[in-house]
Q: What sequence folds into this?
């Protein structure tokens, strides 16, 4: 069963706390993404990972970092979270063809 | 600058009616285009992928067109159901490989009323 799993689904943190969002996929896809979605905006790319330890900044990387130590697992880390990082975060994975793109259900993060 | 523009921003239709959603983009190169459905509070589910220069796809009550010369795509939903209430998102990929970037529209919010 091909899927992308995100944990947790909901998270509430205080400003200044560290945040870890986790994403897993069972399809051995090379490329994985982290996006955030805010009202009225398209998904914005935070980071791309092309494979293990091969990560590149997206359009809005400031305040975020990522870790990919295994192909099936991609983490998004917020060191000292800020209130403007309140958002819904989506992970996606993709293989080479256009058909093979899958999204997780999202993590709703609230930073108070 | 937004490279994928969707219209209308929101749309209300009665159950059983047809509707058309529009997507215009400026992404270059434009390798393929995909339409997603996003239910409130959920992830994105792929409806269809369009690849060719002038392409048409059909998936049940959903059909879509792509004209790469005009950089324009449409999503048609026929005989709408209440469960079609969702946000529909147009995504353009600038390359076919996994190295390609995905460019997202802000979505069209469709509300189907009884």
A:
């Amino acid at each position: 069963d091909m899927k992308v799993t995100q944990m947790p689904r909901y998270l509430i943190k205080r400003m200044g706390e560290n945040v870890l969002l986790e994403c897993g996929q069972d399809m051995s896809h090379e490329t994985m993404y982290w996006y955030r979605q805010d009202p009225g905006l398209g998904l914005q790319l935070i980071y791309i990972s092309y494979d293990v330890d091969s990560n590149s900044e997206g359009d809005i990387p400031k305040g975020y970092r990522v870790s990919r130590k295994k192909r099936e697992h991609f983490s998004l880390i917020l060191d000292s979270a800020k209130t403007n990082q309140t958002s819904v975060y989506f992970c996606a994975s993709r293989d080479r063809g256009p058909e093979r793109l899958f999204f997780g259900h999202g993590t709703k993060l609230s930073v108070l | 600058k937004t490279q994928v523009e969707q219209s209308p921003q929101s749309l209300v239709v009665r159950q059983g009616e047809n509707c058309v959603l529009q997507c215009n983009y400026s992404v270059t190169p434009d390798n393929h285009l995909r339409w997603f459905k996003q239910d409130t509070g959920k992830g994105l589910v792929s409806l269809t992928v369009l690849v060719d220069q002038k392409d048409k796809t059909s998936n049940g009550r959903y059909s879509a067109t792509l004209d790469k010369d005009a950089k324009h795509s449409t999503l048609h939903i026929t005989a709408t159901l209440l469960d079609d209430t969702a946000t529909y998102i147009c995504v353009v990929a600038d390359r076919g490989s996994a190295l390609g970037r995905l460019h997202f529209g802000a979505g069209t919010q469709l509300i189907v009323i009884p």
Remarks:
- The CA atoms of residues 52 and 68 of chain A lie 5 Å apart.
